[in-house]
Specification:
This protein has 186 residues and is of the alpha+beta class. The protein has helices at residues 3-7, 11-39, 41-48, 95-112, 136-153, and strands at 50-53, 57-59, 64-66, 70-74, 77-84, 118-123, 128-133. The longest helix has 29 residues, at 11-39.
């Protein structure tokens, strides 16, 4: 937030935010200490220290643009790292975060010509840093999403599927469910 944004914020709101942030400090400190014990000081510093912050990376070939929170040099490789303020899963990372870092890894690979085998997700509200191995299935999913976006940009709406988000979607009236024969899949 910027100072101008704070100027119009109620004092009680700021005090509540301050109290909530201070209450998280012991948990954050404990998790950072666990990370130090597990990975070691040098590895933790490498995972946290940016080489670049918020660079914009573009690949014409992939028709994809992204901006990691930072790029870090870890084990001799420049890898993307994203910072997440929200909740943290018990193990691993959220699926959406995995796809996000996979897309950033693809962009870095396109830019550098070198494989990016992993990335980091920092859950700052918990002081947890997770290393994410970029699987080939993650790369395929990113490419699949890119193709779907290209089709939508070209005017082809995807076939309607009834999902929990459909009731809130602004495009729901444009969705069409096409009936099909099972024989076309064989």
């Amino acid at each position: 937030m910027f100072p101008k944004e704070f100027a119009h914020t109620e004092k009680g709101f700021l005090e509540e935010g301050n109290a909530r942030a201070r209450a998280k400090i012991p948990e954050i400190a404990a998790n950072l200490l666990k990370g130090l014990e597990e990975f070691g000081k040098d590895a933790m510093l490498a995972a946290l220290t940016p080489v670049k912050t918020e660079p914009i990376i573009y690949s014409e070939h992939l028709n994809l643009k992204g901006s990691p929170s930072k790029i870090v040099c870890f084990e001799g490789l420049n890898v993307p790292s994203i910072i997440r303020p929200g909740s943290c899963p018990v193990q691993g990372v959220w699926a959406s975060d995995r796809i996000h870092v996979a897309s950033l890894a693809l962009l870095l690979e396109a830019e550098s010509g070198k494989e990016v085998p992993f990335a980091f997700v920092e859950y700052v509200g918990f002081g947890i840093i997770r290393k994410v191995v970029i699987r080939s299935s993650n790369r395929r999913e990113v490419l699949k999403i890119c193709r779907r976006v290209e089709k939508i940009k070209a005017g082809l709406m995807p076939e309607k599927t009834e999902e929990k988000f459909c009731t809130e979607c602004t495009f729901s009236e444009h969705c069409v469910s096409n009936s099909s024969l099972m024989s076309k899949f064989f």
